[in-house]
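User: Can you fold this complex?
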Amino acid sequence: MSAQELLELADDELILGWRNSEWTGIAPLLEEDVAFSSIAQNEIGHARAWYELAARELGTTADELAFDRQPDEYRCSRLVELRLVPDWAATIARHHLYETADAERIAALKQSDDPEIAGLAAKIDREEAYHRMHAQMWFERLQDEPRFTAALDELRPLLNVRDEHTPELAELWQEMTIVRRSVAGATW
Amino acid sequence: MDAREQEFLDYVQGGGQVETDDWMPDDYRAKLIKFIEMHGNSELMGVLPEREWILRAPTLQRKLALTAKVQDEVGHSQLIYRVVEDLGKPREQCLADLISGKSKFHNVFHYPTETWGDVGVIAWLVDAAAIISQKALLKCSYAPYARIMKKICWEESFHILHGRDVILTMMLGTDEQRDLVQEALNRWWGPLMQFHGNPIPKEDDPMFVWRIKSQGNGEARQQFLDGYVPQIWELGLTVPDPKLRKRDDGVWEFTEPDWAELKHVVTGHGPKTAERLELRRTTREETAWVRRAVLAEAA
Amino acid sequence: MIYEVFRQERKGQAFAHAGSVEAPNEEFAEAYAREQYGRRGESTALWVVPREAVHEIDDFADELQKNYHRVDGYPLKEKLGRARERAGTA
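Assistant: Here's the predicted assembly.
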């Protein structure tokens, strides 16, 4: 698996994790706020692990890959870059769609010839099991809500659209990097 | 105070612990709810200034740490509101009273955060001020609250270290980064000094009389100064109070905090109060349908 | 619905009451308990129980002299002293 392919995976997790972290502090239920924040943190953690693998091949660092590229260099799918707060139906719809697709991706990576990739995929899969359980739990709860099924239909086509980014990604990137860019070359 | 209330008072003053279903004087219950509710409100409101920076964290490590810290604050509010609910006031009522301005939250969460320097100062010093009060609450006469304080204190311990790490990294960085820290400290010092409340003698503080609090406000402040001013000074930072010094007898002297400002802020007139309550109100409205869908009786 | 959460910190230790979560059903309660009481690996196991399944008992009758089945019912010092004297081993 090439560094570029790793970046696609890492960027998906990073941007989705970043978007999911936007709910921390304002989720619909306090208990859910805590649970969903863990999912967001795990996604960032997974991104970091994939970036670290790619970084070795590219001669850079995970943070530099995560922050110091230009918005149009990110290889994430259109699905993950959308800002969905405060729409919980859309958020859970995306969560469900992404986890389902990601399960297949991870399953394939677990079969990789590269033992590092296979090993990391196995670890990530064990954490993702809880994400899938959580997505399923919410799917069952919301499946009769029209706004939820509408959101699923609206978001499903965006899963594998990777050709062009929405302006939302550039906005997110501005916010993500504002402190980092404020003092060039600084350690934070 | 009748005989039964007097007996209860003697009991708690003697170190007695009270459980949820025990008889308690109406005044004790009312004071308890008010105190604990304010704590829950503070954790929930404290989330708002910090969560802006989750989105701007400059490294993956800081992003994870800050998200985890804010997650903890939300978790604490969950623990605290559960205690209040078991005392008789439902969570929805607490949240409604918070948003309407009927109930209060701590002064520090009414102020803006301006820079990454604030992120460090808040995690290091505001959390430190809070943990001093929280450690004293481990001895609260109301046992369910004392028990959750144990978990809260344990989780807060990483917050302070994270804060200190953020600050140390900046103090070891560029002049601009060092300036960010000093500037943030200059802005936060006033609210920090007001945080533990005005120096009402503890015998006159009903919270202490009922042993809900086990420490006077002045005492808490002294502990804060004793623990953290040395940590501030050793980095070459200055505290914006020319009168601040430790006497030979160990007591810290300082410029009397602005108690009028404290009162003004906690009664809902802080620089960010209205905006933050409005954010709470709108996010609750926008997600009300979720609570209806989820908390309705399970099929 | 309120669910009580009991946690076991380390294998071999007793499960102790840790707190409670509000959830619509068992599945949500488990997810929420797992997060509130285990996200830092601070527990090896949790029990999640609907509040109404927990029955508290806090009254006990102990009216008549019952030290026959407690350690404090057996002050042996005086008798032991006399027995040793009699055996010449005092």
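Chain B is about 70% helix and 0% strand. The CA atoms of residues 65 and 162 of chain B lie 7 Å apart.
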